[in-house]
Structure formats: structure tokens, C-alpha cells
Amino acid sequence: MTQVLEQTGMKRELGLLDSTMIVAGSMIGSGIFIVTADMARSIGSPGYILLIWLITGVITLIAALSYGELAGMMPKAGGQYIYLREAYNPLVGFLFGWTVFMVIQTGVIAAVAIAFAKFTGVLLPDLIGSNIILADLSLFQFTSQQLLAILLIVFLTYVNLQGIKNAKIIQTTFTLAKIVSLLGLIVLGIYFGLNGKALISNLADFWTPYQTVGNGDGTVSTKDLSGIVLWGAIGAAMVGSLFSSDAWNNITYTAGEVKDPQRNIPLSLFFGTLIVTVLYVLANVAYLMLLPVMGTPGGDDVMSRGIMFATDDRVGTAAIATIFGSAAVIIMAILIMISTFGCNNGLILSGARLYYAMAKDGVFFKKAGILNKNDVPGFALIIQGIWASVLCLSGTYGDLLDYCTFSSLLFYMVTIIGLFILRKTRPDAERPYKAVGYPVLPALYILIAGAICTVLLIYKPTTCGRGLLIVLLGVPVYYLWKRFGTQTLESRI
Fold first, then answer.
1. Among 145, 274, 287, 391, which residue's CB has the most CB atoms within a 10 Å radius?
2. From CA 264, how far away is CA 252, in angstroms rounded?
């Protein structure tokens, strides 16, 4: 029996290419150009760095393939929120939506906007910077960097308010641009790095893991890693790669606007995550061919600082500097601006569709469930933009990355457990696409994700504990919302 698609009033404008660009574009932000530095300090070994990126890509692909079955079963606006609601109960669905609104989506939007502003400051250092204070308020300082980040969120929210067609044009254009740019970085890196000193140095000590800490006098201290400590370091180092590979599930939120969603959403999940996984692994191969992993914070040039102590952790810039010299700073700043601009457009576009689905269920502001004259959830877009802007002002966006990674991974794991539940409770449901490798691969993902969450709670208890607290705070909020409804809350907006 053919499943009847949800009739929402939304326009089905997104084809397979558009959907794939939302997946890839939402994943590729600034992380791939930065986080390898912290990973290098945490794990040392070039082999382990590549292994961590590869493991991250494999588990992301497994999760995406598992989500494909759920997307085919329930091609409705709201995506993962719907899957959790149907597999468990409305409370679990709400906890996910609550966490997405409070931290996962808006926190990443804020962090990516700040990254955009930070690299714009490289081009305009006299105008944009965290040290250029526009207002010194009692609780925080308002900087030009924060102002630009907020203006970016406002602009992209405005673009998305005009309709899905405008938003998809920006998404596809900017995502293709950054894919081509990343490919250029990879090709140049491999070409110029072949048989270079950095590659020889990295190959000489490829599999020796160690942790590095910079000392105040410009020297470093190292600590060998083995046994359970090594596993803990790997788990902690994966925060960066997992964050850089996150947001692939955003396409599921937009199911109400995807053409033939039972086919195109599963395919876009596969193609989008595969493209990004390959690009990320190869980008790190290029880094390792151009730069030595080991370095010192007081080094005179990019080679002596190495990947570990690249200036401001800008590994991508340091790698390009070995080819183009000082011009690399400008080249990479422009590339990251393109990357973060497109990334935030995808995040803003998709997040609002989840709040739209929640509003339809009566667990979010009722106005968020209404489409504007351009057939998009206007109020949901606006309230998302307001909260993301507040997070830009909070100054806590760095910690939010840890919150986001832990919370996202937790819900990915719970959602894939839901796949097993739905196979039992709804065996006869139409499944135009079935999870590859079921039950082995989905079960493997659950085990790996559970292990990583446990390691993160042990080694990063403060930030991950706060992330878990945000999830749990959603329980009383859910019951208060159900008890008192949304009318009183909305009357104050």
C-alpha cells in the first residue's frame, strides 16, 4: 500500500541534489579547518588522527543509513522528532525537540556565526574582532564580532522567510563552492606534500600516541598514552571530529518540502555523509603531508608550530601557508567564510521545520505551526533566530560545542534504538528503504555511541553533564506545557 504523504501546505521544492547539499552543507562548517589541532594535542599520533576521522565517518554513515529507513517510513516535517515520538512516546520526542532548540541547533548556529565573524575579522581587523568593544554592559561586553554574528543570523533568517526556493539556491551554491574549495586544498596538499619533510617526519612515528601540553616558557610536556587512558583520550579527541560531522540529520526535518521524500531523503543522507566523510579524511591526509604533527607553541613558523600549535588552531591556514605563504591567511579566511555562511543557511532552514512539527503537536508555541505567506514556518524561524542571537551574546558558545556533541550523540543512539523498537511494534509498516546491515550495523553504532558518551561524561564531566542536565530539564517543561498550554506563554510574545 502506497503511503500518503503529509499535506502541510509547504511547497515540495527540494530535489535529490538540493537535499544532498543540505546534508553536506550543514555538516561542513569551520570545524574541519580547526579541530585537528586539538586532536593532535590530545592523541599525538598521525595514525590515530586519521583513524579517529575515519571512525567518525563510518559511524556517521551507519547512523545515516539507519535513519534512511525511518525517513522512508515517516516522510513528515519534523523528521527525527517524529521518529522518536512514534518509537517511544511524545515526551521523548519533546526532549529531543527541546534540546535541539535550547542547545543543539541554536548553539551550533551561534557558534558557526561567531566563526564566520572571526574569520571576517581576518580580512577587516580594524572593524571586526572580539577585542573591539561596542558596549561594556554589566554582565558582558558587546563586541563587533558578536554584532556581525547576529547580523548574519538575521540576514539568513530573513532570506529563509522569503521561501524555500531562495534558501535552497543559497544552500546549493555555497555547498558546491566549499566542496570544490576543499577538493582544491586536498589536491594541492597532496601534490606539494608528497615526499616532503613533514610527511617523512609523520611517517617516522605514525602510531605512537601521546598527549601534549604547552608550558608557559614555550616548551611542551608529553605524556605517553596506553590502555584505558588511551581509550579515554581517543573518546575525548573525537568531540572535534564528531562536531565537525554533525547536523547530517537536518534534512529529515524538511521532509514536508522534499520531492519524493521516501526516496530522496535516504539517498541524500547516504550521498551527503559519504561526500563529507571522504573530504574530511582526505583533508587530514593533506594536513599531514604539509605539516608535522609535533610542534611547539613558541615556534617561529608554521612548520615549527606544527599541527598541534597552529596559530589559533587554524590548521587549514597553516597548511595552505606552506604553499602560498602569507597569502594563505586571506585565502583560508575567505574559504571559511563561504563554508560557515552556507552551513548556517542549512541549519537555519531545517531547524525551524522541527519546531513547526512540535507546534502541530501542541508542545511548542502555536504560532510556530503556522506557515507565512511564502509557505514557510515564519514564527519558528524568527524565534530560532532570536535565541541563537542570545547565545552569540552569552559568550558560552565554546562550551556549547561540547554540549551539542554529547546531546546529539545521545539522541542519535536513542533514535537508532527506536529503529529496533519499530521493527517489533510495526512489522507491517511500509519500508521503501531498509537499514543496510540491520541488525548488526545499527547495533554496532549503538555500542560505539554509548561508549563515546560514557567516555565524554568521564573525561568532560562539566560540559557533558550540563548537556545532560539540559535534556532532563525538558521533563518538567513538557508537563508544564501540557498542563498550562501555550496560550499564556504566547500572549507574552
1. 287
2. 10
